[in-house]
Request: fold
Amino acid sequence: MNPRLTADQVAHYEREGYVIPQEAIFPEEKFQKLKSHFETKLAALPSDQRPEGMDVPHFTDPALFVWLFADEVLDLVEPIIGPDIALFSSHFICKPKGNGKRVPWHEDSAYWSTMLPASMNVVTVWFAIDPSRLENGCMQVIPRTHNTGKMGFSDYDPTDVSKNIFPTEVTKSQRDESKAVAIELEPNHASLHDARIIHGSEPNTSTLRRCGYTMRFMSSATPLSEKARGFHQIYLARGRDLANQPYADPTRSYADLLETRAAHGKNGH
Reply:
């Protein structure tokens, strides 16, 4: 391993629930190939589908594992979750300029409660394909909410789905937006955040598109529930399998699984 986080950065992540490494993630050529790959996928998206919802694209696009399993990424997460790493999920979340939808305040863990144990330790690498700024609806986090009594399982109220990506939001009395920190990133930079931290983002009404690629990793000791195996799968990214569980083949496309997910209903993002 060539750890890309210092001891101070790991301590910040553990204390605050997020960290922003101050360096480019990929060499420029490798980044440009990912961006071009995304642009091709976006151009092929059916006109009736929102670009914010390009969930689990790796299920049918094995080419993405060039970046998902890259040492540049895995060396970021290993100092947090250890050397035995499973890919839990990934998601292109692209807010078009002018009408990009709001992401309501939420905890990822709340959406994954039927998929992973309550003790889940999932780290998300939020990788910027476009500039991500306050003006175009960058992600915001409320620090230290991953260590509250709720521990990633707050109460939720319904939202207006015509304006929000998700249909529910952390109850207003259980979040303090005055403490929110904006995660502003340049292209080819990333932030990392804990699955239990409260986070969200405003709509994009600017003239600048905002696209990020979330790559979500966990220790291979974390078991995927039997229920989840009917509509989801994980991949061994590095090291050993510590939970004696099956993994998908990163060289295969699983188009049938997307049909199953469509019938089951989406679990979070």
Helices lie at 7-16, 28-43, 65-68, 71-81, 108-111, 255-264.
